[in-house]
Write a structure and sequence with these properties.
By secondary structure, the protein is α+β, with helices and mostly antiparallel strands. The chain is built from 16 helices and 26 strands.
């Protein structure tokens, strides 16, 4: 018995183009050897089904077939051969069933042929009483006795019945095997065919992501609003340059051990191959490079991750020319390109099903009001009600620090704690000037106030406008002459709170601002500057 060889390339793992499974595969149009015979699966499809497969000249990953489908194809080809043999026997029998005379002659010829095949001596027939006396040596002997004919016909019929029965059994076995193969599944995948395809695509996309992260310098990361997190150790960054410098210190081989709840995000500001010195600036080019040069297996799936180019300034979408100030706004925009959860009413795109459900409630005018049992105040969500009760009624802190056991009453207090105690570096640089802030809110307020000049609050008595309503209220005192801000130490009053705060520093016994040229010290920096101008104006460096 010949060995069961598989001479030819094996792709492990690969995606079979016949069943979509992720298995060990062979190339569909390459010659292999099986049980001493040559086989090319694309030719077998043509011979068996008349099916000419497409894309046989493309990449090897696009023309794969798994061992299960190869087995089914062989069974189908064997079944086809059996059907053809039976059809040939049927056609041969039909030739001899045109009339009775031709049937008898056909039976005699078949008997003679069987005897010749068995190597029997024809002289036994020549001398037998069963042979007609008018025997012509040039013609096959005529069988005249009805008993002989009946026996021969019964024998042939019995043989046909046996062959038919055997053929039926084989057909039943093939049908049973095909049903088993159709119902066969990857152990991790259960459910309907749609779920199988989804799981297969997710598995292939995850494999591609691991291969690209391990073999290139792309930077995988996680986010919370516009803050960046190292995907390996969860350290937080606001500067993408520092994020990249930190991430490169981790071993990319550890990426496969990370459990992902969200779609992977990668920074592609630098892509280059890790396996050689090739400089690459495009993900598609990287895929071609590592598959052709380094023989890395990648599957034919797209959108394995969301691609970003992280910069300190404005962030630009990698799919279009739109730009955004904050990452949170950019990611929300990216849902238009890659979000699979789509609203049927307005077409809004989302990455997560729960966000789509929340959005759809706005179309149904569903206002889920959650009243506070203590004061009756209404809230749109249970969480907001919980935060209200904890802050106002029970006086319990509800904002825990994720690096220590401290719990805070507000997000702002926790925010400051993370900066002061844990050294988190937060710096949001203004694009228009050299000012920087440690929170997005402060930067946003700065832009609106000083650069966009969004002054919504206008004085009714003059043309002045103000950014904050409190500033407008202070301004109104200039028209009324009110001086509502009074010093509790000396009784001086001021029309603005800001003026009172500056005055209160004069009562502070600690004089922080000391002159470096003499022993004078002051409670306010402005007083120190005035002192230097008056007393030390001729000193070098203080003019």
């Amino acid at each position: 018995m010949s060995a069961n060889n598989r001479k030819g390339p094996i792709i492990d793992p690969g995606v079979c183009r016949c069943c979509g499974s992720l298995k060990k595969c062979r190339i569909i149009n390459v010659e292999y050897e099986w049980q001493g015979q040559k086989e090319i699966y694309s030719d077998m499809f043509v011979d068996c089904f008349g099916l000419l497969l497409s894309h046989l000249e493309g990449a090897s990953m696009e023309r794969l077939i798994c061992a299960t489908c190869v087995s089914r194809l062989r069974e189908a080809c064997a079944f086809r051969q059996q059907v053809l043999r039976c059809e040939e026997l049927l056609l041969t029998a039909k030739i001899h069933l045109d009339n009775d005379g031709e049937t008898k002659e056909g039976l005699k010829l078949d008997v003679k042929k069987e005897k010749l095949d068995e190597g029997e001596d024809l002289n036994n027939y020549h001398n037998s009483e069963e042979i007609n006396s008018d025997y012509d040596p040039e013609v096959i002997p005529r069988i005249t006795r009805s008993s002989v004919k009946k026996n021969k016909m019964l024998k042939r019929r019995r043989k046909k019945v046996d062959e038919t029965s055997l053929l039926l059994k084989r057909m039943q076995n093939i049908t049973t095997k095909m049903k088993k193969l159709e119902n066969a599944d990857i152990p991790e995948q259960k459910g309907n065919s749609k779920a199988k395809n989804i799981n297969n695509n997710e598995t292939m996309a995850h494999h591609n992501a691991i291969s690209i992260v391990e073999n290139s310098y792309v930077c995988p990361f996680d986010t919370s609003f516009s803050d960046y997190y190292c995907i390996y150790c969860r350290k937080q960054f606001t500067d993408p340059n520092k994020l990249r410098e930190h991430t490169i210190t981790h071993d990319p081989q550890k990426y496969k051990e990370i459990t992902h709840k969200k779609q992977l995000q990668i920074d592609i500001l630098r892509i280059d191959c890790r396996l050689c010195t090739q400089n690459i600036d495009n993900i598609d080019e990287l895929k071609r490079h590592i598959t052709t040069i380094h023989q890395i297996v990648l599957y034919p799936v797209d959108n394995e991750f969301l691609k970003f180019r992280l910069t300190n300034g404005r962030l630009t979408c990698t799919e279009c020319d739109n730009s955004f100030t904050f990452f949170h706004a950019l990611k929300k925009h990216m849902a238009l390109h890659f979000g699979t959860c789509i609203c049927d009413i307005c077409g809004a795109h989302y990455f997560q099903e729960r966000m789509l459900l929340l959005h759809q409630k706005t179309h149904k005018n569903i206002n889920e009001n959650h009243p506070c049992n203590e004061c009756g105040k209404m809230f749109k969500s249970k969480r907001n009600r919980y935060l209200h009760i904890a802050k106002i009624h029970t006086k319990e802190p509800v904002y825990p620090c994720n690096k220590c056991d401290e719990v805070f009453f507000s997000y702002i207090l926790r925010y400051r704690h993370m900066i002061d105690e844990h050294g988190e570096e937060r710096c949001y640089q203004c694009e228009e000037c050299d000012r920087s802030y440690d929170s997005r809110k402060s930067l946003r307020e700065h832009n609106r106030r000083f650069h966009l000049k969004i002054y919504k609050h206008q004085c009714d008595l003059c043309d002045k406008r103000f950014y904050l309503p409190s500033r407008l209220k202070e301004h109104m005192s200039t028209h009324s002459g009110e001086r509502n801000f009074r010093c509790e130490y000396c009784g001086k009053s001021y029309p603005r709170l800001r003026g009172l705060k500056v005055h209160m520093q004069s009562h502070n016994t600690e004089k922080k601002y000391k002159c470096t040229l003499c022993s004078a010290s002051f409670t306010q920096n402005v007083n120190l500057k005035n002192h230097i101008k008056r007393q030390h104006q001729n000193v070098d460096g203080y003019e």
